[in-house]
Amino acid sequence: xxxxxxxxxxxxxxxRWGDGLLTATSxxxxxxxxxEMPSKAPVSLPATMHALSDRGISAPIxxxxxxxxxxxxxxxxxxxxxxxxxxxxxxxxxxxxxIKVNQQSEVISRLIxxxxxxxxxxxxxxxxxxxxxxxxPLSPQALLICNGAxxxxxxxxxxxxxxxxxxxxxxxxxxxxxxxxxxxxxxxxIRPQLGVRLKLTERVGGKWQASSGxxxxxxxxxxxxxxxxxxxxxxxxxDCLMLQHTHLGSQVPDIIDIRRAAxxxxxxxxxxxxxxxxxxxxxxxxxxxVDYTGARARDxxxxxxxxxxxxxxxxxxxRHAMEAAGLxxxxxxxxxxxxxxxxxxxxxxxxxxxxxxDSAEKPELRDGDHHLLSDLAxxxxxxxxxxxxxxxxxxxxxxxxxxxxxxxxxxxLEQLARTEQSFLYLASRFKAAxxxxxxxxxxxxxxxxxxxxxxxxxxxxxxxxxxxQLHPIMPIQRLNEAPNRRAVFHDLTCDSDGTIxxxxxxxxxxxxxxxxxxxxxxxxxxxxxxxxxxxxxLGDLHNLFGDAPIVTITLEGPDGFTIEHETEGDSIAxxxxxxxxxxxxxxxxxxxxVEKAVAAGKLSPSERRMMTAAYKSSLAGHTYxxxxxxxxx
Length: 633
Ligand SMILES: *Cc1c(COP(=O)(O)O)cnc(C)c1O
Prior knowledge:
Blueprint: H1 2-11, H2 14-17, E1 22-24, E2 30-32, E3 43-44, H3 45-54, E4 61-65, H4 66-87, E5 93-98, H5 105-115, E6 121-124, H6 127-134, E7 143-146, H7 152-161, E8 167-172, H8 175-188, E9 194-197, H9 222-234, E10 241-245, H10 255-274, E11 281-283, H11 307-325, E12 331-334, H12 338-341, E13 345-355, H13 371-378, H14 388-407, H15 413-432, H16 439-444, E14 448-453, H17 457-460, H18 462-466, E15 473-475, E16 485-490, E17 499-500, E18 503-505, E19 508-510, E20 513-515, E21 525-529, H19 535-538, E22 550-554, E23 562-567, H20 572-578, H21 583-599, H22 605-620
Parallel strand pairs: 4-22, 5-6, 5-12, 6-7, 7-8, 8-9, 9-10, 10-11, 11-12, 14-16
Antiparallel strand pairs: 1-2, 2-3, 4-13, 13-14, 13-21, 15-21, 16-17, 16-20, 18-19, 22-23
The protein binds pyridoxal-5'-phosphate (PLP).
Pyridoxal-5'-phosphate binds next to loops.
């Protein structure tokens, strides 16, 4: 049995992209595991969903697996430690978490707690993010890197935070910003720790390549940099310049690009040092990617390197450059966000319904059927290997002719319905013909079912919608059963864009996911994996579907897991208030309307009571499809 579940899971390429975090049990459940603890029993996802449902938490949910978060952070630091040892790098590593990648309080506080031992810090790109950082118990040695456009309030707070024990670095993004910093630092009589953000000329591949190269919107080019150095010297601030910052963009697919960029960053570092800047920190930004497809390839959703290779390449490049220039090895800083959080979250939704584009039901011919309808039915007689293409062509021809007859008023709705039914039946016969998979099934266009999911793509998976991000997706149950259907997923929004129709499969990227037929009264859950980076706050309120509940779990306890923290999803009242409705006022207006109906004798008082109760409980409830379940006790 174990083999069966593994075989089915293999269809989804799980062994490749799973990174050791997932397995399939002999019961066919997708289950969570910790590669560092091979003796630990895997934690079944369907069992977890069941146990959560007993507690009143049901799909769609965002499941945050705390040990996965801890693991990525630990891996990153271990990889740098190993790289430094292997390469003979004498500097230290100071990681910072870029808050924009996942701002959720639970995530930030966990990272700071687990990162204490490594003096893990934070990177902020805005004033709200600075407010978050200043509320964290950072280790005094942990860095607080301030990027982004800084107004006077930002600069004042960041400068003063140094006095309160924060190890704050203000990264100068423009010449104008330096003037603000200089003025306020002088007023406050504070010697700041300064960084400078540079534009590299090397461009990198990947979706975020616009963040790199000299047309990038951020940082100073060579000419401005030289001007800045002159101004720093003239104003007596050159001694404060301790960090050089570069950022290539996120999810850089090719290690060669990373290496080249690091080498160029070293050139600037050496030059700036020669000009008198006492640099000690080289901040190489983000870009460390996640292999979402498991292809280990240089494409947008993969990376052709491991975290170890990334760290070793940086250490090696910096060591060579610094030794050639006779400089000490700087402290390496990275702002690796995606790598640290992506794997820790799994989005799970349930399938509400399916629209099938084939049928096992064979319509009987009747007296008076149009002769084309009989011709269509007769195709079944020659769906075999020798005449498959001919049978297919005929099917399409007869169906289209019959549809044309309907449009011209020559056959009635009953005949049209039987045409559609015959077509769906033939589609199932074509599918059954073994070698249909290739070009024919694509042309048939009917091989793919529409599964209707209880989620909003726009709210929960915004990058899937906006930038064609691929996440691993698969059913989390029945993996010991061959999935004999193929489907795309539609969300709850009334928007044809709310569709997932690209999938990571064993053989590459496919346009439909192998799925199981739905069973009456039985939940069918789909897991979207590795959604911890960027998805949680980019989402929007299309059709007013709000945040799904977030459940943070550890992988210990009697149920196999323990709920560490629970964030309720948005209630309808909350979502209404986001778009400037006062839910109380809505309720009042509704009450008045129904009371008028009672006064006019159209509604009974008890109907009024029922309606108001439904309105009130809906306001308090969440925004997603609620599958009625009996509430006991
Ligand atoms: C977005 C961003 C990051 C995070 O990049 P990842 O690829 O997610 O690690 C780091 N630094 C800066 C300046 C950023 O804008």
